[in-house]
């Protein structure tokens, strides 16, 4: 058994559990459930029953989880973190990609003329909290070493005793507010450069954006954003003639320089004024690959990639820390990251309203990783709703019910569903987890193959 487990790449107990699952009488149904979740790593288990009634004919269909493997129905957890569930994170990344892309090239209810609006890809970063190991253009870090790309020292403090860990986590904690201040000043700066009052500017133009947060190796969050100037009614109306990429670029830099968030003194910690770092990057967004400008597809893919990542990319934990002594259970935690977490707990008593201990696993950051203005593009809810409608139509076909024409006002949904569900747990056993990972990998490979085929047939494409 030990030799077989080693050959498969699992421990003997996991192999025993795999054999138990594979030899169970409902194994094929279990696989079908896992495939329906997309190979979810932490599926939610439900128990209960439902009755679907066609009110026109009186026909009804009953379903109960009593006939399912283990008496449970498994549904996807929906976690966006790739470290927690790669499968659900892949779906979230796809949704984010379409959300950003519809605001760049149209689609999903946004006209394709949106591509003619002035738009840029902007990156706003945190200031310095002390020297860190890096790879400068000169090739040699100030510590005297030429670091390799995979050197774990990159991003960590050169002198931890002089690094301002307190300000680093306070900056992360207030980053969402700093972004809000930035957007307020951005609208003012756009209006000023157009020679208009803010009220008059609103009558002819609207600033829209979609952004995502990313953690740098040093543990500081920064933001990537697609920022666009539309007409007064959003992407459906053209931007005014004075709205140019150059004007938007200048307004972004001026707004970032003006935006600040004051933090009062507390205990031994002095008062601070938080602001953006000087490294601000603003690039025009082009329409074709190979242009000097950043391509639309590259922007969409970049934002989608980081929408599924969080602070765990810096070596921290991907779940909440119940109390500070829990860090003792993680001896491999990098010293730099450990100091940032400890700073959160140290500051928590002085700034209780900031919930720093609660967000210590995020190094203090408590904002949303992905946000957008209402008129930037479609919404994640609309994308999920479209997917739910598609699955509902598929279920109707399986039950022999007539398809519901979403575009036909005369088509009335006469289906009544009465259901009762209870939470029955979450996750997989070790053997189920190994099998689910293989199913998820198979699904991913099939999707990538389908995308490649579609790209060859259509010249370009993205598989959702």
UniProtKB/TrEMBL annotation:
InterPro entries per UniProt? RepSA, RepSA_streptomyces
- In this chain, the stretch annotated as Disordered covers 391-410
Q: Where is the composition biased (Basic and acidic residues)?
A: 391-400
NCBIfam families according to UniProt: rep_init_RepSA
What this protein is called in its record is Replication initiation protein
Which organism was this protein described from?
A: Streptomyces marianii
- What is this organism's lineage? Bacteria, Bacillati, Actinomycetota, Actinomycetes, Kitasatosporales
